[in-house]
Fold:
Amino acid sequence: MRLDKYLKVSRLIKRRQIANDACDAGRILVSGKNARASYAVKIGDEIEINLGKFQQKVRVLDVKEHAMKSDASDLYEVIA
Structure:
């Protein structure tokens, strides 16, 4: 699954376009490296999000095409 879509499905970022723009601006890191929106997310990846005051680091636990709001937090675990 693409990184921008994963960020939207997991509800880490509200809209896919915002996730895409954040990737283009270099505000999303995967395993410590800048990642493009087309990066293929895999289980075990560590994603770091830096959007102004919102800074979060998560580990990918599962990759699903669709997730309900109640299940979205099961797709990742917060590291920092």
